Amino acid sequence: MTSSSGLDDVQAERLARVTLSLVFEPGDPRAAKLCAELGARELVDRLRSDRAAADITTDAGTRLPFVEPERDLERAAVMGLRFVIPGDPEWPTCLDGLAAAPPLAERGGPPLGLWVRGARRLDELSDAIAIVGSRAATTYGTDTAARIAGTVATDGWAVISGGAYGVDQAAHRGSMGVGGMTVAVMAHGLDRTYPAGHVDLVDAIAERGLVVSELAPGSAPTRIRFLARNRLIAALARGTVVVEAKVRSGALNTANWTGRLHRPLMGVPGPVTSAFSAGVHALVRSGAATLVTSGDEVLEVVGRVGEHALAEPRAPERVRDRLTVRLQQVLDAVPVGRPAPTDGVARTAGIGIVEAQRGLDKLEQHGLVSFAEGGWRLTDAALAH
Amino acid sequence: MTSSSGLDDVQAERLARVTLSLVFEPGDPRAAKLCAELGARELVDRLRSDRAAADITTDAGTRLPFVEPERDLERAAVMGLRFVIPGDPEWPTCLDGLAAAPPLAERGGPPLGLWVRGARRLDELSDAIAIVGSRAATTYGTDTAARIAGTVATDGWAVISGGAYGVDQAAHRGSMGVGGMTVAVMAHGLDRTYPAGHVDLVDAIAERGLVVSELAPGSAPTRIRFLARNRLIAALARGTVVVEAKVRSGALNTANWTGRLHRPLMGVPGPVTSAFSAGVHALVRSGAATLVTSGDEVLEVVGRVGEHALAEPRAPERVRDRLTVRLQQVLDAVPVGRPAPTDGVARTAGIGIVEAQRGLDKLEQHGLVSFAEGGWRLTDAALAH
């Protein structure tokens, strides 16, 4: 039973973290570090009393007088948003990996908290795959993203992406299309939707999945906030698939985070003439990413050992492939047109007559040769292969 | 100076090897082994006197009475063909690797000799790259093969392939188109050309490069002979590029040989929806092949260390990418429309006013912001990125 002071503690912690999320840019590694050292409430106290380090105070101090954490929480609740923090039952432990991972582009550390919209729970994300790629994707890219999303969703995996145009929206739709769970991690406050063209999509995702952000309501997306957001996409997933990415794509930043978190990174190739696939090709070439061509291959990479072991892709077997080399040699020596006697077949094949006879009998059993008019010839079945 | 008995020796060796090439299927590992142990002339003697192992004698014995090695050599010379054997100055030493490599599909060992057509020499092949792939290639595959061949040929590398439809012919043409040397390794006797549609192409290759075969004139191509031929393509080259290959493509057999010979294997990806690229994707995925997207990347793999080191593919750098995260934060806080005063920018950015001022001055120097009407706004240059 949680005592009222226990509830007060949790609420105080939540308010402190809301405060911090309002005064610091998301993914500020110094804020994450100080919060881990001092605790959220102590850090807020120090900021208020100017007792934190000078540069921290300068940053946070400029905004601090203007923040209203309680009001923001109340207004968020009205909008159907909640602020989830470490210690809450639904806090996803997969984010802990961010504590140890080195910063990238001056963004790093676990989030102080997450604003969440949707009836599902963050801790349902134990089996999630991130699917990312270019906004300006080709239909090859979006078709592939949707197909892979549908396959992994059918297998019970949640699909995580960034709610953007191109690959992201295809991944979300591919998952929802088979009734799967999808999570959109945004780089702005959840009171609005960017891009505006995705209002309906994000509403649908909130209804069947989750929409998540490190940014408080009222925050607009910026390039830094996209970079910060990408680490969350990578950290919430078991592994990341990059479907299409040009050489300077934001998806490569997400790929970089996947590596930092020691999670499997996968890339879907495309035509080498396509600039949209060049970023993926570079990742595969460097060894950073494993080449995958389907959802099944993705599952083989991220799945439990042995569970999704695929057979090597094989074309349908043909009868003649099951023949020994020697039998193939005999078969090659049998004419199409005018039948040849056994010794003629033996000579063409370069083998003894006894062995040729045995071989021809076997081939006749396989239906590949027939004897007529004093000689052997190939059957229609043999010619069909 | 070679004495007349020395010349007789060489001629006797040549005749013995022609004999063996006429009685054994190419790439018969037993023949290669016995020839290495006993020498060609001793092996022929034993075959003639039935002193070789029973199965060997059975095979060779059936054909032996019918072969006429001197006549074949004379007729070959009339056709402009020569039979090159180990010990000849032009014998390519890169084929020696086949002695140690384990057999594959019951084909193996170095060739007993090679029938050659063309004024170039086999020992010019110290720097050669094999380019192989599907006969039923797409234009994506043939365009890519031709482009890669042109690039490596321009850099002085010979291009080796199999003279077939599809990827092979594109590789040969791509090389010849830039005046490069190309070698077609065929699976039949060089008195004719298969496919018949490539008579002119093979004539052109013989004129500017070389046409090579393990098969004596009069021999038709068979599946086993294609398998035997593939090991020669791999063995004559420093490395092999597979451009397009379905999952049951002969090119995968050549790829397998490349691995057995410990030479670099490279694969060109394509759309994952294309069955024509599925074989290549499987090779890359398994780690057997390195993904390459261009001739330059091929050269980086096969070239001498450091000679062809490529820069990571980069998009053209933009001014804002050279900014620190802090300057980007300031830039993000500057409005597009109505100018904002310095303290307003500072508050939006969440930093101190002194630092905001410094940042804005820097950005003004970069031409990204301008001060007018009492405030800061973004310049057109900033908006263009």
Offer a concise description of the structure.
Two copies of one chain form a homodimer. By secondary structure, chain A is α/β, with parallel strands linked by helices.
Describe the structure.
The structure is a homodimer of 385-residue chains. Chain A is of the alpha/beta class and 385 residues long. Chain A has three domains: 73 residues, no CATH class; 224 residues, Rossmann fold (3-Layer(aba) Sandwich), CATH 3.40.50; 66 residues, Winged helix-like DNA-binding domain superfamily/Winged helix DNA-binding domain (Arc Repressor Mutant, subunit A). Helices cover 45% and strands 11% of the residues of chain A. The first copy, chain A, has 17 helices and eleven strands. In chain A, the strands form two sheets. Chain A has a nine-stranded mixed beta sheet, with helices on both faces. A two-stranded antiparallel sheet of chain A has the order 10-11. In chain A, helix 1 packs across helix 3, helix 10 crosses helix 11 and helix 15 packs across helix 16. The longest helix of chain A is centred in the N-terminal third of the chain and has 20 residues. The radius of gyration of chain A is 30 Å and the shape is elongated. In chain A, 50% of the residues are buried. The mean pLDDT of chain A is 89. The interface between A and B is large, with 57 and 57 residues.
